[in-house]
Design goal:
Elements lengths: L1 H9 L5 E5 L1 E3 L11 H8 L8 E6 H12 L6 E5 L2 E4 H12 L19 H5 L6 H13 L9
Parallel strand pairs: 1-4, 2-3
Antiparallel strand pairs: 3-5
Helix pairs in contact: 4-6
């Protein structure tokens, strides 16, 4: 379906679209985020499946969209992505903040496809990288309010 929508947009002169990878972060006013259940399971000692994926913080995706709204001359599909993140590393960072068991093993197999973000970068956009992920995790575990009871 995504491909069909992109093709339909591509047929319209001046249309623009953003392909985004997995989006993490807490939406304003939201009680949970995409990893809430994962963190609960991990901290409770339940098995966690190894996985590796590309991720972008919601604020970085919003910044990319705002950048495009300022540039009506830009058309076509653009990619928004940031980190190649293995659950092993994510949960090791959680462990460093909240304790917990050893993280799961690293995901096996080929790395995820990393989308080129050079078109957005040429417009002055930059994702927050590891610093943004670190700030997100620090905020989530500052008072343990980011972890729902489970």
């Amino acid at each position: 379906m995504k491909l069909e929508v992109e093709r339909a947009l591509a047929a319209r002169p001046g249309a623009v679209s953003i392909r985004a990878t997995g989006v993490y972060g807490r939406a304003p006013g939201a009680a949970e985020h995409k990893w809430s259940g994962l963190f609960v399971d991990y901290l409770a000692g339940r098995p966690v499946t190894p996985r590796r994926a590309t991720e972008i913080h919601g604020a970085d995706l919003a910044a990319a969209i705002l950048r495009l709204l300022e540039r009506p001359d830009v058309a076509g599909p653009l990619n928004a992505s940031d980190l190649d993140l293995d659950r092993h590393d994510l949960l090791a960072a959680v462990r460093g903040r909240a304790g917990g068991p050893p993280p799961p093993p690293r995901a096996e197999g080929p790395p995820p496809s990393v989308m080129a973000t050079d078109r957005l970068a040429a417009l002055g956009w930059r994702a927050g990288g590891q610093a943004r992920l670190t700030a997100f995790l620090d905020a989530e575990f500052a008072s343990r309010s980011g972890i729902p009871a489970g």
